[in-house]
Design a protein that fits this description.
alpha+beta; 7-stranded mixed sheet; two-stranded antiparallel ribbon; 19 helices; 57% helix; globular
């Protein structure tokens, strides 16, 4: 099993050198998030992740969760590790001080979430889902609901879930059958069954707070008739203490491809007591608070998986001896050369490295935008941040998970036959990561959201701030010869992105299916160009640091060389997607349903 080491140096590079988190935090009033404090928190989080969380990853996969008469037990060590997580105050880091949190920035917590996800995807999901539940209650709950549920959720002694999916109802939530009926005391009786509920039942926390969508009697059909409810596993007294067991039960847990140590549950609500969040029939509006937070978390899982796979692959590639280099012997004292000397292995390693580090930069930037929406007093700055998040969240979620999964496949390939064997852990990374391409909206759903709702829905206006940022970056670096390759290439792709957008819009006016036909290729094109922007920015920072002299020259040189690899070997993939878009939807739709035979 690969030994996980938190990439502290690169995390600090992104936060402090690329994104200047010190200035960012001061401007937003996060006065406690000083450079020394940030360093200390990241260092301690790295130790906790490496020493406590990572060693449970393979155990969790082997043992999985067990279900007995509705009771779910997590693998050996998980309960104790979660207790250490709570005792260390990690759940409270970026939560509101009003409810017992430390009030530190979201972006700082995001860097710690990445470490945990790389080290142990299944474990990281337990507290990860709680963050979305907290955000939903804090944004849309009543003052009484907040006082009842938030302190324990923030503390981590209670956890949260998101209950959307039903057996017949996945992406199309308007088809849900779970119903809610008003009780005499103002609460609601929730009846129905939800499936695929991550962390829906377990032994880590004292209570589990489910955020559930359901339909009220007489509600409009479809998504316009969805309401949102808080439904705890144990009922809660007015003072926040636990009362009797609610009519919520776990009917079974799924036997899955991966993330075996996270219980994916069938949850039954049998007239369970629930409490309305927000307005009747406005549940999806409230639910998007949870889903948007979750989508950023899932995007991070993609780059985190790439990091974990890269670490395992790199160690193996340096140690494994196979064949001689075609350009001459590199290891004369051994019977063969290490496989890292072979170009094709380098191709896979650099793909992993460029996606993990590029993804880290993109997620770091998006996390800072979230900071602005939380803490800025400048309405224009908040609006700009929200607009950029709306554009970039579906890109990050779908692109980084697709490329993260590719990187785990490279990990298996680099190990060769050993990669297919469980003891090395590389096949577990591949199995664990595939789900990230699916949940919180599949790649196809993210692509439709991006192209149909965001891009065409705004008539392209939502794209303009990002294009302005690219143009300003190009202008600032126009006189730097070392940046010429990056800037010129980036400018060309940015212009092509805008042309493609206009072409799709024109085609869609004649045939709306052109949107669906182009959407995934459009998103992937956008993803490659967006990551290129952040690699260009990282190359610029690295060049400046090298000019200034000092330590870490090898780190900055590696950053520049990886940027060049990305621009020359990864970014050109975007042209394949552009060609698919240009070809149109006709070939996709030419075969009738009856002609699909086997």
């Amino acid at each position: 099993m690969p030994e996980y080491k938190a990439p502290v140096r690169d995390i600090k590079f992104v936060m402090q050198e690329l994104l200047d988190c010190d200035t960012h935090y001061k401007q937003l009033g996060y006065n406690d998030a000083s450079e020394d404090m940030v360093d200390a928190i990241i260092t301690e989080a790295a130790k906790f992740t490496e020493q406590v969380i990572a060693p449970l990853n393979q155990i969790g996969d082997q043992q999985g969760c067990t279900w007995t008469d509705g009771v779910v037990t997590t693998p050996d060590g998980f309960k104790e590790a979660y207790q250490q997580y709570v005792e260390g105050g990690w759940p409270t880091l970026s939560q509101s001080e009003e409810f017992g949190g430390q009030g530190l920035p979201y972006s700082l917590n995001a860097s710690i979430s990445e470490m945990m996800s790389s080290a142990n995807h299944s474990f990281a999901m337990y507290p990860g889902l709680s963050h979305g539940a907290q955000a939903t209650i804090e944004a849309h709950g009543t003052s009484e609901q907040k006082q009842q549920f938030m302190p324990k959720l923030v503390e981590g002694s209670w956890t949260g879930t998101m209950c959307l999916t039903e057996s017949h109802c996945g992406t199309d939530l308007g088809m849900l059958r779970t119903k809610a009926e008003l009780n005499d005391d103002g609460s609601y009786a929730i009846t129905g069954t939800k499936i695929f509920i991550s962390a829906g039942e377990h032994d880590l926390s004292d209570n589990i707070v489910h955020i559930v969508i359901a339909r009220l009697p007489g509600a409009p059909e479809g998504s316009k008739g969805i309401s949102l409810f808080i439904v705890p596993k144990f009922n809660v007294n007015d003072d926040g203490s636990i009362a009797d067991r609610n009519a919520v039960s776990c009917g079974s847990i799924e036997h899955k491809m991966g993330i075996n140590a996270n219980a994916t549950c069938v949850i039954n609500f049998d007239s369970a007591k629930g409490f309305l969040i927000g307005q009747e029939n406005r549940g999806l509006h409230c639910m998007f608070t949870f889903m948007n937070a979750a989508r950023l978390g899932v995007a991070m899982e993609g780059s985190a998986a790439a990091e974990a796979s890269f670490q395992g692959s790199l160690a193996y590639a340096k140690d494994r001896l196979q064949m001689r280099s075609i350009s001459g012997v590199k290891n004369p004292d051994g019977p063969a050369d290490p496989i890292i000397v072979h170009p094709d292995v380098r191709r896979m390693l650099l793909t992993q490295k460029s996606i993990s580090e590029g993804g880290r930069a993109l997620i770091g930037y998006l996390s800072q935008l979230v900071d602005i929406t939380h803490a800025s007093e400048d309405d224009d700055a908040k609006a700009d941040a929200e607009s950029k998040l709306a554009l970039l969240t579906p890109i990050a979620k779908a692109f980084l998970t697709e490329l993260g999964f590719e990187c785990t496949s490279h990990g298996v390939q680099i190990f060769g036959g050993h990669g297919f064997i469980k003891e090395w852990g590389m096949e577990q990374l591949l199995r664990d990561t595939k789900i990230s391409c699916i949940y919180e909206g599949t790649t196809g759903i993210q692509a439709l959201d991006l192209l149909a709702r965001k891009i065409l829905g705004s008539k392209g206006q939502i794209l303009k701030p990002l294009m302005t940022d690219v143009a300003m970056f190009a202008k600032d670096n126009a006189d730097n010869p070392a940046m010429t390759e990056y800037v010129n290439t980036l400018n060309e792709y940015a212009k092509q992105w805008q042309v493609i957008t206009g072409d799709i819009g024109q085609k869609a006016m004649k045939n709306p299916d052109e949107i669906g036909g182009a959407s995934v290729d459009y998103l992937m094109f956008a993803g490659y160009v967006t990551l290129a922007f952040f690699w260009a920015k990282m190359a610029s920072v690295a060049q400046s640091k090298l000019k200034d002299g000092g330590e870490d020259a090898a780190f900055y040189q590696a950053k520049i060389k990886t940027a060049t690899f990305y621009f020359q070997r990864i970014l050109p993939r975007a042209q394949g997607h552009a060609a698919c878009i240009e070809s149109g939807v006709d070939s996709m739709m030419a075969l009738s349903s009856e002609e699909f035979v086997f």
